[in-house]
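Protein modeling request. Please complete all fields; requests missing the sequence field cannot be processed.
Requester role: graduate student
Desired output: 3D structure, token encoding
Chains: 1
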Amino acid sequence: MNNVNDLYFDGYYKEIWKTLIPDELTRKEIEFMVPHFALQPGSRVLDLMCGYGRHALALAKQGIQVTAIDNLPAYTDEIRQKAAEENLPVETVCAGVLSFQPAGLYDLAICMGNSLNFFNAADTNQILTHTARALKPGGHLLINSWTLAEIVYARPLSNNWSRIGGYTFLNAPQFRQSPARVEVESIILGPDGDRETKTGVDYIYSLNEMEQLLHGTGFRLEATYSIPGRKTFSPGDPRAYLVASKTD
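Delivered output (248 residues):
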């Protein structure tokens, strides 16, 4: 199928993220981050698995220096172009988060859009360890997740479909064990009848397991919200925001 991979990553995921994460939610997340973490012009933020840069660009517009990391060049290229057009203090890095070890020290690291749940426990431990080393003493980490156990187990999984640019996407999520995870089989149907199947995985961690992972990598979990800074997380809420601080 011609260009299906480009469409899948550069178009489909971006459109899905924009559906799952409307601009209003991004605005609320930024409005929480800036005062809660005392960010100001010149503060340094590390945006892990930044996607198309919804946080990186918004923070940079307030004079905050952002390093934005993602393994998809289409995303980092787009961020770099927008930052250059608006003269924003954003450095983009196209790299896998497992291999990337940040240079310098940051005030805040963010890992949004459920992206940390793409990784098993061993890889998550490695990412958190590298992130802790990149933070200043007393620096913070903000993690956004919608596949905590307290979320997934409270809501039934259901099939869904969407249509973008003449392509039809059928998504079938299934719960798997050992380790606990949600596997989503996505069937892509092209306008010419071609078909491609991809599988995505979101690992499931309980809030207690996340706290243990954070504690073992140099963090202390300070709070968990369902609405940033406004509502403490309760089981069944659709999203969670974990705020952790560096302990050493």
